[in-house]
Structure formats: structure tokens, C-alpha cells
């Protein structure tokens, strides 16, 4: 990881933090402390990242991703720690039927893959779940409508 990786990641996360409503610009805004509290991390980790001093560790990254409503995968790729090839996305539902021994993407994984924000995740799961067969229905015959 280079200094430019850290700078790019910090700039991206600063913008994300601001878009999520955390006041990180004014000294008394309390945004850094509030973010740290909600994520369950030390305020110093947030400060070091925003001052481009250090990249957060994996657990801090995971916690920030949850609070900011972005997939951990995106955080790791944008940080420069891993590449898209290191973390390939699973096939999307409906792209191809799961073969023997393969598993389908869960709604939670789909929400992560699609970047559904944390404040809309529950609604996404509830609405998308209405389109799935009941768990005891077994596999459906045929393909998507119109096949």
C-alpha cells in the first residue's frame, strides 16, 4: 500500500462520511466521535485515517463499512489492500441456475453486492423476500418469466 492509496481511500471515505451526515469539518461538530461511537471503534482510528496517517485495520474497516452502509468488499478494494480479482462477486440471482453443490446468493449477500445502504437494508430484505418462493417450496421449475 502506498501513500497515494491511503490518500485516495481517505478522500473517498471522507466524502462518504459527509454524505452520511457526520460533521467532520467543524471542531465541535462531533462527527468523528459520533462515527467512532456508532462503529464501536476508537476515535483515534478515525482521526488517523482522515489525517492520512494510517489505514484502519480489518476489524475497524468492517465496522465502518457496516455503519456507513457500504459492503466491506468495496472498502477493501478502495483501500488498495485487495483487488476485484481477489474478491470476485458471486453470481447474481437469476444469472444462471445453481448447479449441484452450488448455493444461491442470500438476500443479505445481494444487499451487500448491490450496496444497499444500512438505513434501507431491512426494507430491501422485506420487499425482495416477497419475490422468493417459500423455503419449503423447493426449487422452481423453468426459468424467469418469459423463458
Description of the structure:
InterPro entries: Cro/C1-type_HTH (IPR001387), Lambda_DNA-bd_dom_sf (IPR010982). It comes from Streptomyces pyxinae. Residues 35-75 form the HTH cro/C1-type domain. Pfam families: HTH_3 (PF01381). Residues 137-147 have low confidence and may be disordered. This protein has helices at 3-19, 31-39, 43-50, 58-68, 72-79, 107-114, 118-129. The protein is mostly helical. 50% of the residues lie in helices and 0% in strands. The termini are far apart. It contains seven helices and no strands. The protein folds into two domains: 3-79, Orthogonal Bundle (434 Repressor (Amino-terminal Domain)); 89-136, no CATH class. α2 crosses α3 (43-50) and α2 crosses α4.
Strand content: under 5%
Distance between the termini: 47 Å
CATH superfamily of the largest domain: lambda repressor-like DNA-binding domains
Number of strands: 0
- Determine and state the CATH class of the largest domain: Mainly Alpha
> Please, how many helices?
7
- Average pLDDT for all residues: 82
Question: SSE string, helix = H, strand = E?
Answer: HHHHHHH
Largest beta-sheet characterization: none
Architecture blueprint of SSEs:
Blueprint: H1 3-19, H2 31-39, H3 43-50, H4 58-68, H5 72-79, H6 107-114, H7 118-129
Helix pairs in contact: 2-3, 2-4
